[in-house]
Amino acid sequence: MLNTIKFFSLYIITSFSIGLVLLLASCTSNNNDDDKSQEQVSVGQDLSIYLTDKGVMMQGFYWDVEPRFDWWNNLSTKTSNWAQIGVDKLWLPPVSKGQSGGYSMGYDPSDYFDLGEYNQHGTVETRFGSRQELLSLIEVAHSNNIKVIADIVMGHNSGGGLQFNSYRNKDTYTLFNPGNGNASGKFNRSFEDFHPNSIHLKDEEASFFEEQDLCHQQENVQNWFWKNDDSVAKYYKNTIGFDGWRFDYVKSFSPLFVKAWVDEVGGWAVGEFYDGDVTLVRQWILNSGISAFDFPNLFQMRNAFQQRNLRILNNGDALWKTNPEKAVTFVANHDTDREPVISANDKLIAYAFILTHPGYPCIFYSDYENDNYKSKLNDLILINRTIANGDLEVLFADNDEYIAQRKGTADNPGLIIYINRNSSELTRTVSTGWMNKDLHDYTNSIKTGINTNESGDAKLKAPSNGYSIWSLK
């Protein structure tokens, strides 16, 4: 009996010792794995070796910018940095004096030739500064190889004087002369230059500020907008130094007048055709001959994120899908961000989408200057200018996941973007076309690299509620 007790005691002690050794060995193994994982932190290649001549546009304002009267100076301090990250166009707000004077964002144009030099509507400078400060900003931008885009509001006017309007049989604010909202004395207007008049009842399209809706069929309007040697278009381009045009609310007048403007003076141009119907947008760019903001893509992204259905990104239609060279893609602007179309939580995912897909991206000032976004936007802009190349193929899409590949070129590897709207990190095996290669996530969201097999398959990863962008290591 004593021997039996000794045997069981020895068995228990021995079993405990073996278990302790195995436990310690297990802990050591985990530590080694951790160390190994640390050793395998992926480091990508320098993407600058793939640098192309692609750039992005910066929208250089938001609604009700501050500080008032110093905005041109503020932008001047930022152009050098913007040029370094790849900004090649700077879109400015309307630069002329508006009815709201020092509070005007320029979308209530009164005197197209008062760029902050005439005392009218309660101020000399515009909300953004003086004419000289504008000229200095344009000079600084040009020295950094950034083209400057003027915002042109040619559909409606504000701030004129009262006059009897025989076509409306009442007084209307349609008198623009040196004593009534047009201190420059150029482009004087009367009720004959607005709708209705002796030759035209209304625009073919929607009216905006109906009583001050300009008639572009009137010779006086055409001459002063683009035909005369000292027209608005030629003054802005030849004297002030603008390189191109953003046309405001182009649904309010015929695209033929935009075409006439650009045919007369040239310059890169984009129109704000504010509509989610991509068929209408495509028809507008065909008739105007210029680019358009891709509002259909903006609304498509909103629907995909709000409805938690990323299939919409694949199945929905957008301008960039058929006309990438005419599509200016964006996530927010001065209008859409006042009641955000894309929520703050979705903005970086939306920027990752447009900066990896075809089209010409526009970055919104308030987003870029947000410290929570800036470094990630810098990474995405670099990716856009380097490996966002080649044909696009969607590899997978469901409610939570969207995976698409830019196929690259002979000298450029392209990329794969993996968007994940799930609250957990996800993995998905896809065929990459890269055989036996090491891959790196160039957003650095996934710290460890992955490998493709001899068939080109890879088990990609994406962080929770985020995105990863994979390419050759």
Task: Give me some keywords for this one.
single chain; 473 residues; alpha/beta; TIM Barrel; Immunoglobulin-like; eight-stranded parallel barrel; 14 helices; 20 strands; 32% helix; elongated
How would you describe this protein?
There is one protein chain. Helix 7 runs parallel beside helix 8 (278-288) and helix 12 (347-356) packs parallel to helix 14 (374-386). Mean pLDDT is 92; it is low at 1-39. The chain has 473 residues and is α/β, with parallel strands linked by helices. The chain is elongated, with a radius of gyration of 29 Å. Strands 1-2-5-8-9-10-11-12 form an 8-stranded parallel barrel, surrounded by 5 helices. The protein has a 6-stranded antiparallel sheet with strand order 13-14-15-20-17-18. The termini are far apart. The protein contains 14 helices and 20 strands.
